[in-house]
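Subject: for your reference before the review

Hello V.,

The reviewers asked for a structural picture of the protein, and I figured it would be easier to keep everything in one thread rather than splitting it across files. Below is the amino acid sequence we used in the manuscript, unchanged from the supplementary table.
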Amino acid sequence: MATELSFFIPVGAQHRAERIAFACKNELGIEITAFIGGQALNDVEARAQLESEIEAELSGLPLSKTMHGAFIDLALHSEDRRIAALSQSRIEADILTALKIGCEKIVFHLGFNPMVRVGRYRKEFLRAHAEFWHYALASYPGISLCLENQWEEDWGIFSELFDLVQDDRFGMCLDVAHAHAHSHFSPDAWMRGMSASVLHMHWNDNRGDRDSHQAIGVGTIDWPAVIAGCGAWKEMSVTLEMRELSTIEKSLCFLARQGVPIRQKRALSEDDLSALPAGEGLS
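And here is what came back from the structure prediction:
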């Protein structure tokens, strides 16, 4: 496999020191998930404090960083202008946070409901999203905006939107577990179908019944096919989206046995290691 894969782990509002230490010692990047819920979602002062804390904790560490933005109940396409405006403000707030912390990419869910079969819904959905993402890309240079699949049964809506908004900084976060559990197509079929538009990926496993965030190799996803599919790209960033560090460790071991090199683009020096925050930091 010629693809250079850069692996990331989630860092939420809790247990940050342990997670950052683990990422540094294992030469991984981090995906900040601290702002998708909790007090920082609605309390301006709490959000500012959390931003400052995370910025300070990461200062001087050569970690690649992405961020997962808010996604619960957001609806850019809502006919209720107040709901659409609130959704837009949530997204913009997260983009500003990501830029402040120094993230290269930020992930949002597309939020398309495949159960709504009315043609007008799809048309208005695409119109509203194309309009907003054109605006966001023009307003916030310096960061890539990635839309994640969740309930979508196939990749058609993504293809249509990316055709409407053609920008190198706008693409897909392909969640292979969501594709496996919720769609009509295998993860590797999604990879082939969206090859030109994937900017980031989320990996974890399940048995096809629900999004259970299991260790890679525990469920029924065809990982050799997924890994082989990465050959379509020169490089790709991948977040191991799991709740426990022990689950991430198992996944890293599985990937290593599959011949996948586990390395970040820049290794840490002894000075970097001495500056790590205190934490258990499994290695």
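For the response letter, the relevant points are probably these. The radius of gyration is 18 Å. The beta strands are 4-11, 29-32, 65-68, 105-109, 144-148, 170-175, 198-203, 235-240.

Happy to draft the paragraph if you're swamped.

O.
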